[in-house]
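Hey, I'm writing a tutorial for new members on how sequence and structure tokens pair up, and I'd like a real worked example in the thread rather than a made-up one. If someone can provide the structure for the chain below, I'll link this post from the tutorial.
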Amino acid sequence: MALFLGAGINLGDSICVEGCKEIDLSWNGLLNGLFTEAFSLLSIGKELSSEDRYIMQNLICVSNKKEIAKGFSEENWERLRSHTSFEFPPLVQASIIKSVLGNNYINSIRKHLYQQCDKYTMQKIFFKYYGLNSNLPDTDKNRPFYSLYQLARLIILHHSIIAVVTYNFDKFLTMAIDILRENREEFFTEKEMKNIRQDRTVEDVFGTYSHSSQEKDVLPIYHIHGLIPPYNEFLPVKDNEIVLSMEEFYENTQNVYSWQTATQLHFLCHFTCLFLGSSLTDINTQRMIHYASKIGNDDKIYYLHAVSKSMKERLNEKEYTSYLHLMNIKDTFYTQYGLTPIFDKNGYNHLYDTILNLYYETV
């Protein structure tokens, strides 16, 4: 089995660390943070007042908060936001960010990721919510980093997972695996401890393909769009091949003989694959899944998704039913182009509980 992981694995219920620091590691959160920094530089010399900057920034940045700027009706504000989100899709935002930030581009991404969450912060959250000695009831659904925690457990306990393909720049999954391995007595039962391979190491693969040792006791985590490590590690810039902006995305797609493309096709065509935390909007990924399905591996590529907690809470019964019908249409489309979708209307936590518990039991 190979895991294909998107930015959604970093999500969970919103949490404040140490009383005031809220963690937002979503894809939109990253773009919002970077665009805010870029917009401050972009507005210099354009004679924009602070009020103008506030309005423009809040129209472009994605937010769940309904903050209507002074002088706008709610109807016109929503109409403007809808139009702006169409004119400034993520790829355009990322391209503007790279153009404005220049040499600070990668450092700004690093700052956004690791000033919010480092290994110490993640470890503290894991002990509080998932440690065997945690006093929180099992019924407590307010569980941050639940996907990361469950995936780290899955990788440590089950040796049939031979590789991870991720579209994320961060090392949060590696950090989660390290935390559980270093404190295994706190997170695994005696029975589970017997199944942990002490000789298996995790290796982040990125940029130039020669970085990977490709040994049998190594689980490779392939960073298809490049890697930005935390502050206590060296930041490789040369040949790192970060893919975020339009220019980088097109160059990555154009190189059909790259190791990134070959790696994805290898696993999609020959192994059972699980897509988690991914929107699957990348046309390059869609193309490869379609190719894998044509050679007969379509019944082994699974896409896990679920209704979000915020969506379920905002919709009334009729709206929620309509939403489920739309998801059914979307799943029909996924099936046609080579995926086996697994949708859970009870939310992502329930989805992970169901799928991973089933896998634990069968293995």
